[in-house]
Amino acid sequence: MQPSKRLCHIGSMDTPAIDGWFTVDDDTVHLIGTRCAECRTVCFPPRTGFCPNPRCPGEELVPARLSRRGTVWSYTDARYPPPAPFVAAEPYTPVTLAAVELAEEGIVVLGQVKDLTVDDLHVGMELELTAGPLADGPLVWMWGRPRGPGQTGAGAPASTGGTGGTGGTGGTGGTGGTT
Amino acid sequence: MSVVIAGTGMHPWGKWGRPFAEYGVAAARAALRDAGLEWTDVQFAVGADTIRNGYPGFIAGATFAQALGWTGARIASCYAACASGAQALDIARTRILAGLCDVALVVGADSTPKGFFRPVGGDRPDDPDWLRFRLLGATNPAYFALYARRRMALYGDTSQDFAAVKVKNALAGSLNENARYRRTVTAEEVLASPMVADPLRLMDICATSDGGAAVVLVSEEYARRRGLSTAVRIAAVSTVTPTFPNTVLELPCFATDSTAAAPPPERAFRASIAHAAYEEAGLGPADLSFAEVYDLSTALELDWVEDIGLAPPGEAAKLLRAGDTALGGRVPVNPSGGLASFGEAIPAQAIAQVCELTRQLRGTAGTRQVVNARAGLAANQGLFGHGSAIIAIT
């Protein structure tokens, strides 16, 4: 695992595959959701208009960076190339997917997994947000191995309990840090 | 006052490559014959819309009415993804209960393309169903696989358990002349089939099929007047939506609702679908003789067994291993053979479930017959938050 080399790929020259769902600042990737100014309900993808909480009259949904770490709710892969509009790499290697639970936001977010296969994953392990290119170039958010201990994104630590031992296993280079 | 299921009919499931309306008309004619009624007796017809990956295609009510021959009957069309059939049934039932008609026909039929369901063509970056393929390559089986993996992690279910569901349903399907797959299978065959979305293999995942199903509903008073059997009646139709926050990652979504402001509901969505049907029928899981559930994957059948209350969370595999949910068991699940034997013909599927409920409750299911069947539940969930559960009784 070579964070600095990998992160070179998340350059500002890469076009995001979708606008407004994630940002890459320096080398740090954040999902962009919205938080209701009234009841604090978080939405991803970002939402406009009205709060989805049926008991909240809120109409001000403020863009918010989501926690960068979470725990695996579940995971799978695609052994066959998914159909269009997905663009499959040639030769095709299975796309790994993980649904990751962000504790602070109380939300599970699906994403591709970078540089890991289903054999490397288990339910409850900690992953960290990164980004990587689709086969035809544009950048998309991805879940990856945590880069060193203790790094969290916006807000409080994303995981509480149960995963404490996994944080240090990610950055084998020991470089940690994201700045 | 209740609504009577006077007749049912199906066009066999398969990959026939003909227009969906043909299957629907064949099923409708079979249902009318079964009821002993004519198309000209029908006052109201509802079509469950055929779809492509979540989008309504043809206007089914009018399509079927025209194909059967215009009679001036009133019609409705409805779209609720996999739950379309249940909503169509509910519309017909409600109209009868309101006293606005006595005889209603409900029809659903589909012809499907080969392979993965895929989104409608063209660039549609505002559409989550298009985006999940574009950004993630997340097919429907990917979501089924997430649920399956979660069962393995939480409850210790194994690939052998999932294979056993397929073996069970294939055996039932081998006895059903309307099923697409009539061959029994072994666990070894399931476990040797290609991995599609880990941990689910090809034979764990339901196919996409052509097929058609129809039911004729009548008021009790009309049935008496015409000398029709009132043996099988609808006790409940549940078409509930989720309660916020829905904490299950549903296809085609990128994320769940957030629990930051509101705690999760007492019942998760699938459990709430069955619960509403039980409440309406005044019955509980212990009253069921059998159930038809939406086994989009083998593992998902185990989720449903718990969601409809036949087992506590995590214990469905225990029932399966004991043979309780097999034909001849304590409470057979998917005695029709389920989606494992049919493959999914989306707008027809919830109606096909009702066809099976009716046959079992009439005692005319032949070698698949559930002994002394008194009450059956059919459960299903459609894309975009469409619940579907129907209880029929005799």
Automatic annotation (TrEMBL), chain A:
Stretches with biased composition (Low complexity): 145-160
Region (Disordered) location: 145-179
Boundaries of every ChsH2 C-terminal OB-fold domain copy: 65-130
Sequence ranges of Gly residues compositional bias: 161-179
Start and end residues of each ChsH2 rubredoxin-like zinc ribbon domain: 30-61
InterPro entries: ChsH2_C, ChsH2_Znr, NA-bd_OB-fold, Thioester_dehydratase-like
Highest taxon listed in the record's lineage: Bacteria
Pfam families: OB_ChsH2_C (PF01796), zf-ChsH2 (PF12172)
Identification of the protein by name: Benzoylsuccinyl-CoA thiolase
Species: Planobispora rosea
From TrEMBL, chain B:
Ranges in coiled-coil conformation: none
CDD domains per UniProt: SCP-x_thiolase
InterPro entries from the UniProt entry: Ketoacyl_synth_N, Thiolase, Thiolase-like, Thiolase_C_2
Start and end residues of each Thiolase C-terminal domain: 268-389
Tree of life domain: Bacteria
Domain Beta-ketoacyl synthase-like N-terminal: 60-111
Example of a GO MF term: acyltransferase activity, transferring groups other than amino-acyl groups
Listed name of the protein: Lipid-transfer protein
Source organism of this protein record: Planobispora rosea
